Amino acid sequence: MKFFFIAAISIASGYISFQIVWLKTDESFMATQERIQEYYIKREIVSKIIPDDSIIMTERSDKIFFPRYEVITQTTNEKILSNIKKIISNDTPVYYYTFLSDNDVEKYQGFIKDFGLRLDAKEKIFGNEYLYRVGLNF
User: Residue 61: what are its φ and ψ, rounded to 5°?
Assistant: First the structure.
């Protein structure tokens, strides 16, 4: 009888573990696989819009674009923003990829204006994710 009880607990634990690891949580293997597939789709959509030598600025979406594109994740770093103006002046296209709300993008637009930059040409990529061309603000 003790053997059957231990076996039943082991089977139940195994089933629950399988459900958690493979299927049921945001960090499960299936959910992670779906997210990776979405990343591939997003990268392909963006790659049809921007040149291969582009640099992409993004808060958290670097894993979507690296290593295919050079990526800047410190989008509020003043030293980096100062250098972006030089990069654009040397004819390297720079884009900003974000999931921020329009209100937050407007605030960011005000922030980067102090560095001689602006956001242009908003393109919807996926859900609430957008791509902007970063331009010089004269």
Answer: -100, 25
